[in-house]
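Work Package 3 (structural annotation) set out to generate three-dimensional models for the target panel prioritized at the project kickoff. During this period the team completed the workflow that converts sequence records into discrete structure tokens, so that structures can be stored uniformly alongside our sequence database. As a representative example, we reproduce one entry of 293 residues exactly as it appears in the project archive.
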Amino acid sequence: MTANAHTSAPAGQAHAPRHDRPVAVITGASAGIGAATAVELARRGHDLVLVARRRERLAEVAARASDAAGRLVRSELVTLDVATPGSAERILGDAERAFGRFDVVYANAGYGVERPMHRMTDDGLRAMFETNFFSSVELCNEAARRLIAARRPGHLIMCSSCVAKFTLPGFGAYSASKAAQAHVARAMAYELRPHGIMVSSVHPVTTATEFFEVVRESLHDGETQQYAIHDMNKFFVQRPEKVARAIARAVGTRRTEIWTSLPTRVAAGAITAFPWLIDLAVALSRRKDAAPR
């Protein structure tokens, strides 16, 4: 069996052979933080269920995972859009057919746009929440039900953002979807802990991924990108591998929030206590942008 082979059990087979390695399910696994997390968890002994729309990219990630782990990492590739109805049942069903189990579920798939709220269409807003919020909640809820029924522990993780704690002009919709994730993840952490199931939200800062390319491609005629990653201070930009290592270290622990930048975490807390701080920062930023050059 190759590292990028589809490993589902034959139709009608009720149970996969016994599988002793922990299994991680990762959505949005074809690039960025999802791909980096797959490689890092493989390095730490996990086999993988990789989910995304681009199968050829998933196969590349599976091969990278085997190279990093120094062994043949068994990888189930699931090609779908997580916003499709029934995707959670299909993903976890494939995991159980291939491996007979799953231990970590990382709901990482998501995207953003940079657009004022009054220019967001209802369809655009709903589509973002379907991918960023509802698909992640449905996946984690379905995973929780299956783990409870099997009386197994596990760790459910949702990829939120630092902007779940504050927002910026043009990112109201994205921030709202990530804040909703963070609140649900925390509630689930309390609810599922008696069952031995840990739940965490991840709060990355700006990460060098395809995110800003997608944002740029989503701009309408006449719109400009305020927050281009190449214009940002490198101090505030992280590699996806840093986020992946933070996630891997947290697996199996009771950490309800996973942060990758202490200064940003402190700033988010200060902004929560004193909202005028972000008001001032936005006002100063706009004044600087409006100044003659």
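Strands lie at 23-27, 47-52, 75-79, 104-107, 154-159, 197-203, 257-259.
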